[in-house]
Every structure is written in C-alpha cells, then in structure tokens.
Amino acid sequence: MNIKILGAFAAVALLAACAQQADTTAGGGKVNSIVPGSQEDLVANVGDRVFYDFNKSVVRADGKATLDKQAAWLKQYASNNVQIAGNCDERGTTEYNLALGQRRANAAASYLKAKGVAAARMTTISYGKDRPTAMGSNEQAWAQNRNATTSVR
To answer: How many domains would you assign to the chain?
Structure first.
C-alpha cells in the first residue's frame, strides 16, 4: 500500500517538474520566452490595440500614446509589416459597421504614417462587428469591441 502511495506522489512530482518552464538563466530565473519583434512582443510590451468612442473614428489621447509606442517599435523592427484591423460593437448595420471599422483602421494607419512608419509596411482591413473581442451586449463589452488592432504580418 505504501509503495502505491509513494509511486503516486512520485508521478505527481514528475508531472509538476515537467510542467515548469525548462529554460532558466544561470541565476535560476526564468528566461523570457517572448521573441523580440514578434506579435507576442508587440502585445506584451507595446500594446496592439487602440479604442474608439461610440460611432467615432477619431484616435483618442490614450490611443495616441499606444500608437506612439507602436511607431517606435516599428522603427526598431523595420523589417516587420503590420495589418491594422478596424472593429466595431454589435450595434448598427453590417454595412455601417464595415465602413466605420475601415475608418478606424485608416485613422490608426494615418497616425502611424505621420509618425514616420512607411505606408507600404501597413495594410488595413475592417471586420465591422464580425470579430468581437468581448462577448456581451452591454457598454463594457461594446467599449472593448470598438478598436483597431495591429498584427504583425
């Protein structure tokens, strides 16, 4: 009986050890697994989206701060191209939201271009209300879904 319990504990310990990140530094700390210049780097260290007010496509002050960081990041990683996707909340017609999403994507791209990012490095697309970030039919969800999201291509 004790051997079975000991064996079970050993198996659990082995699984726990395997679940831990294998890469460590010489000092015993974990190595950052985010590759510089990757989509994960953009999301974690810069921010990949800017948010818009209801029925608006004007870049807000908080969005400008994020886009400033994106512009600096894109200058640092000059070989990266990006796609900027405009998104909307669920309210309004499909046609209206596709047009509004395109205006949002274009506004973010125009801001980055004004900050020195070459237009040839950016593409824009609108998903309208077809790709919500947050599920729900309330102001909190809608606010999250009114965005332009930058993705590394």
So the answer is: 1
